[in-house]
Amino acid sequence: MDRDPLSVEEAAAVSTELVAAIASLVGQLSSSARAPTPEQLQAIVESPASRLLLARGVDGRIIGMLTLALFPIPTGVRAWIEDVVVDAEARGRGVGALLTQEALRVAAAHGARTVDLTSRPGREAANRLYAKLGFELRATNVYRYEQPSSDAGG
Questions:
Q1: Cβ contacts of residue 117 below 8 Å, gap of 6+?
Q2: Whole-structure pTM value
Q3: Which of 6, 17, 66, 120, CA to CA, is 20 to 30 A from 54?
């Protein structure tokens, strides 16, 4: 990767830099999501079910992230891509493609035959990227159950 000004690595430890970068990226991804605490990031980094991939720019600054969830089920190893975001200043430079390609490599190395993700239709650039990388739109229903709020001050 010395020839490429961009690099992708897996987060191996939580640092002040990582906490700040993830907070910034989560803020760009979702207006409703809260940035993870250092303890929550530590749980992600230590979990055998997740890989937090980071993209770094020429200056070494974290400019993108992707979370790959990997878990065994009776029918094989499942892989799911979540929380893909590239810093607004770095978009259009292939960062999302590098992150996604690394996630596909890691998933294959862990025995996953398929990799799933969801992307809102309004994220046109992301949807074009996924199609270009070989992802196919599936005819499926995605359901979400939202847990009742536990903020009832008990």
A1: 80, 81, 82, 84, 130, 135
A2: 0.90
A3: 120
